[in-house]
User: What shape does this take?
Amino acid sequence: MTAHPERTQIQLANVLAAMGSPLRLRIVRVLADGGEHTCGSIVDGVAKSNLTHHYRVLREAGIIWQRPSGRETLQSLRRDDLDARFPGLLDALIDAACLEAAAEV
Amino acid sequence: MTAHPERTQIQLANVLAAMGSPLRLRIVRVLADGGEHTCGSIVDGVAKSNLTHHYRVLREAGIIWQRPSGRETLQSLRRDDLDARFPGLLDALIDAACLEAAAEV
Assistant: This one.
């Protein structure tokens, strides 16, 4: 599995660019529960190769951890790192994403 | 001048994608003072055509107003619209951008 940036290497512009996609915002909303999720359990109806790309974007920006577990890959949010680096930002982003998702229903 | 999205058309993913650039974050930090700024007064050392592109990205995402004034174009932050649409988000983004900029000095 593949590199994750160190906490100190996490750059705001990269975080925002990575979040700047409806599908990746949806992934982050699911991971906001604090748990580890398998690839397929996070979003339905998206091709696996496509999902792999989106997880990679989130991982390279420092937003998620990915770790292998048997034949699966588990994803989780890097809340500690993001909160340390940009206090309050992640919650504001998740709140905004939830608000928008609720308005779309 | 050119279209601005309505408040209700402002999409979170577009806002974050537009903010996902160091130069555009710099522009937003300058505009966070609430004033109207001419193109050239916001950032130094960037070609005008390049700046025009970045202002357009911010405008199309609903982050800034642009209005002509004589031979200049004035830019300002759409704070009311962003605060109404995503309460707390703009301040969190500006705080994070200022924190990162301060750490880089």
